[in-house]
Amino acid sequence: MDKKKIQALITLLDDPNQEIFSAVEGELLKEEVVIVPELERAWEMTMDAGYQRRLENLIHTLQFRNVKGELRNWLVSSDDLLYGAYLVSKYQYPELQYEDVNAKLTKIKTDVWLELNDHLTALEKVRIINHIMFDVYGYARNKTNFMAAQNSLVCDVLDTRKGNPISLSVIYSVVAQRLGLPVFGVNLPKNFILAYMDDGIDLVHSKNGVEGSVLFYINPINKGAVLGRKEIEFFIRQQKLDLLESYFLPCHNREIVRRMLNNLLYAYETAGQIDKTNEIRELLSIFS
Fold first, then answer.
1. Is the pLDDT of residue 211 over 60?
2. What 3-state class would DSSP assign to 225?
3. What CA–CA distance (Å, rounded) separates 103 from 276?
C-alpha cells in the first residue's frame, strides 16, 4: 500500500464532480481492506455528511469484499468449524478478530478438560460438558428474541450466552472436538443436534456404516439432553418429513456454516433489512 497515494486519493473523494469521484472511488476499490483505517481517519476528521457517507460506503464495500474472499478461501482450503462461524460473525462485525473468539472458546474447553479423565464413559464426558456449558456458564436458548440475527453470530453468543440450536451446537462440538471427542453436527430440519460417534473424524466423510457408529445424539438447545434414534424419528414424523438418512448422520462443516448464513438471512428478511439480506444471499451463492 502506497500510503501517500491512498491519502491523496481519499482527499479527492469529496469532489463534487461525479466523474472525478467515480474515478477516485474506482482506484481506491483496487486496494485491499488494509486501507480502511485511513478511510476511518478521514471520516473522523470531517463534519461533511456527504463526504462521510461516501467514506462509509467505501469502507463497507471493502470490508464486505474481504469477508466474501475469506469465506471463499475457507470453503476451498479449510474445514475449521469455528473459523467458518467466525467469518459469519465478521460480516456483521468487520473488525472482529478470530483470536478473541478463539480465546473465549478455549476458556470453556479448558474448564471442561480440568474435569475429564481417560476412565470416563462417553456419557460421563457429555455430562461434564453439559455441566460446564449449561450450569456453570449458563448457555441457553434465547427465548425472548429467538429470531434475532445475534443468535447466529458466534461472537454474540459467546458474550451473551444465549443462542439458537445451531450456534450452541457449534460451540459445543468445537469444545468437544478440541478435547478429542467425536461430536459432530447433524443437520436436522427445524432443529440442529449433535451426534456422538463411536469412532473418530474419518466417519464424517464416510458413507459406509456411519449410522451404526452413532452412539447417541445430543440436543444443546435442551441443556445437552441425550437422545436415541427413536426420539429423532419421532421428531421428524412430528414435522411431517420423510425419514432421510441425512437427518441421522454427521454433516460437513460447510453445511453448518451455510445453515448459519440461512438463519441470518431469515433474521434480516424478518427485520426488513434489504441491503443485508441481499449481501447474505451473495455470500450464500459462494456455496453453490
1. no
2. strand
3. 28
Under DSSP, the state recorded for 286 is T
Reading the block at residue 44, the C-alpha cell is: 473522523
- Secondary structure letter of residue 202 according to DSSP: G
Distance in angstroms (rounded) separating the CA atoms of residues 173 and 65: 29
d(CA 191, CA 82): 19
Express each pLDDT in 70-126 by its tens digit.
999 999 988 899 999 999 999 999 999 999 999 999 999 999 999 999 899 999 999
| φ and ψ of 202, to 5 deg | -60, -25
- Structural contact between residues 56 and 39, judged by C-beta atoms closer than 8 angstroms: no
Q: Where do we find the cell 491523496?
A: 8
Cβ atoms within 10 A of the Cβ of 123, count?
Answer: 11
- Here the cell at position 268 is 434480516
Rounded (10°) angle between helices 49-77 and 18-28: 30
Residues 162 and 142 sit within 8 Å (Cβ to Cβ)? yes
DSSP at 288: -
Rg (CA), the chain: 22
User: In terms of DSSP H, where are the helices of the chain?
Assistant: 3-11, 18-28, 36-44, 49-77, 81-92, 98-113, 122-130, 154-160, 165-178, 229-238, 253-270, 274-285
pTM to 2 decimal places: 0.91
